[in-house]
Amino acid sequence: MLIKNCNIIFIDKIEKGSVLIENGKIKEINPTAPYEGETIDAEGLYLSPGFIDVHIHGAAGYDTMDGTSEAINEIAKAIAKHGTTSFTPTTMTVASEDIVQSMKVIKEAKLNGTDGANVLGAHLEGPFISPKAIGAQNPKYVLAPSIENFNKIVGDYEDAVVSITLAPEVDGAKELIKYLSDKSIKVSIGHTKATYEEAMDGINCGCSHATHLFNAMTGFAHREPGVVGAVFDSPITTETISDGIHISYPSLRTAYKVKGTNKVLLITDAMMACSMPDGMYSLGGQDVIVKNGAARLKDGTLAGSILTLDKAVKNVYNNSEYDLFEVVKMATYNAAKHCNVEHKKGLIKEGFDADLLLFDKDIDIKHVIINGKLNYSK
To answer: How many angstroms separate the CA atoms of 57 and 59, rounded?
Structure first.
């Protein structure tokens, strides 16, 4: 397949050109030899690496915690239409056996593929979190952090775990952080009431990321910098739900200025109502009301989002002064590094996987290519 006359979004610039795809890979950028095969004339469109979502619970009426291959496959198909070509299905704080079942189908999808976005592995959000920063998690299933409890929730599928969110101040957390980071599992600070000092202790033990910045963590104040202060004052990465609901745009702009665009990932934290009409849904076994673009528990607590990554990119691009390639990097290459796949995904580069998007100047997705094949066309 040849994509010609496109504006190619590289990591540090945008240039007009063409890209040749062969055997699921980017074979050549700006090929000179004549080509007779399938060709897309992308005049006026941008060619971007596929988006990678490292924090997503569900979409299209399905949830990772359904624990079925069908659920993972339907989520993968739904988010592909919005430019997500790879993702880490995200579990919740629920019964251990339910997490193990979800891990089983996540590993299967990672090995066997889906009809949509690639599954890179799992993100475990909980159950080693603070009951005082529960968010939309279920307090009934919070577990004490320990190697034994970690083994209990992942069963035989530890090799499919990409990342885990935990509260570093909880007893036992530091030992588990060291254990997991030694295994190259990304440990992320989240759902936490840690002080600045406790968060820095967690970082010194191996935490390298922070889950949904500003949300379900201690805020930044001039005498108590909190977890947000520790994120700002350390080299760890973080992620933002850029829907304009979870974080105001002035706060987003401030965070990006402090951290720099190399250290922030755009995520959705989407739940099953993503790409569905308003109504009643569930998350982690709790009822969620979706209305006016927000998903909330009955008490008003935000319960994930209905965001898609194309919208997140558009929101940040329209509400900041960053070049488009900088914003795209936060939804592609930064996430590829987080998932340890930056050697093959997240960039438009010869030899890399052909997970690619074509969109217009309004970031309206026109074509999605996954593993070198056209997966979706508008």
So the answer is: 7
Q: What is the pLDDT of residues 310-365, one digit of tens each?
A: 999 999 999 999 999 999 999 999 999 999 999 999 999 999 999 999 999 999 99
**Residue 170, both tokens:** 């909880």
Q: Are the beta carbons of 188 and 210 closer than 8 angstroms?
A: yes
How far, in Å, CA of 183 to CA of 178, rounded? 9
Number of alpha carbons in the 13 Å side-chain half-sphere of residue 322 = 25
Q: What is the CA radius of gyration of the chain?
A: 20
Residue that the structure tokens 């995520």 belong to: 267
* pLDDT tens-digit series, residues 3-36: 999 999 999 999 999 999 999 999 999 999 999 9
Which residue carries 């997966």 as its tokens? 375
Distance CA 53, CA 83 (A): 10
CA atoms within 13 A on the CB side of 91: 35
DSSP letters for 278-333:
SEEEEETTEEEEEETTEEE-TTS-B-SB---HHHHHHHHHHTS---HHHHHHHHTH
Q: Which residue has the tokens 């401030």?
A: 254
Q: Which amino acid is at 148?
A: E
Does 284 score more than 90 pLDDT? no
Structure-token pair, residue 355:
């997970």
Catalytic position from the list 53, 201, 269, 355 = 269
Residue 100 and residue 154 in contact, taking contact as beta carbons nearer than 8 Å: yes
Q: In the numeric block, which tokens belong to residue 38?
A: 């399938």
**∠186-191-193 over CA atoms, to 5°?**
115
- Around Cβ 8, how many Cβ atoms within 10 Å? 22
- What is the three-class DSSP state of 150? helix
Cα pseudo-dihedral 273, 266, 204, 229, rounded to 10: -90
Q: What is the pLDDT of residues 27-84, one digit of tens each?
A: 999 999 999 999 999 999 999 999 999 999 999 999 999 999 999 999 999 999 999 9
186 close to 165: Cβ distance less than 8 angstroms: no
Q: Is 310 a catalytic residue?
A: no
Distance (Å) of CA 291 to CA 252, 274, 306: 23, 12, 10
Query: CA 115 from chain center: how many Å?
Result: 19
- Encoding tokens for residue 284? 């982690």
Strand partners, 357: 48, 368
